[in-house]
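PROTEIN DATA CARD
Card holder: tRNA (N6-threonylcarbamoyladenosine(37)-N6)-methyltransferase TrmO
Chain length: 234
Origin: Moraxella lacunata
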Amino acid sequence: MNTHVLPIIGYHNSPLSQKFGVPRQPNLVAVKSHIRFVVPYGTPDAFVGIERYSHLWILWQFHHNKEQANFRPQVRPPRLGGNDKIGVFATRSMYRPSGVGLSVVGLDRVEVVDNQVILHITGADMVDGTPILDIKPYLPYVDGVNGATGFDKPTGRNVVFNDKAHDEFDVLIKSGLLTTDDKALIGELIAQDPRPAYRQSEIGVVCAMRYGAVDVDFMMNEWGVMVVSGVRVI
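Structure generated from the sequence above:
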């Protein structure tokens, strides 16, 4: 089998430290995160001119996946309910021969600390600690294809915070551990229904999503609404 070794140029830092809760596609939720680079790739010289672009392509590694001994030509994507099999190259499944992901993210700003660049980005679908393999600018005139077809954007669920959750979030916001923006973002993440496909019909079963230093409890009620029921410091 032919192989090619790719260098890791940096690592993604995000409040989402577990796969559960990470958006299944980029730009579904405006999660703010950043990329720190390893020497020598973080030199400011390598990023001259990058501010002219609003978005970037990020090439990254599915580092939480176990290496597959044999090639699996078909997968069960969540978009199809986790039941139907289709070809791996017709999906964005994490279970791929190369274990490489590709995402478009928004570029917020470029920061330089100790002569090393930190890229602040928005909309990533990567877990905290994800190895970064390459970065390229997104070019709307070639990357935005008119008339492209495929799946429509998924419709999110409605989300409500019960009184207990509101009170607990208020305490954490006043303490400075969370912000009102964090609370809104958590609601958007839960609206995407991070539960695996085979569990998305479950009613009244409490799940926990980790965000930064807290775990957020939520469940789906009988009307299909996601109810945030509590938040606690881990």
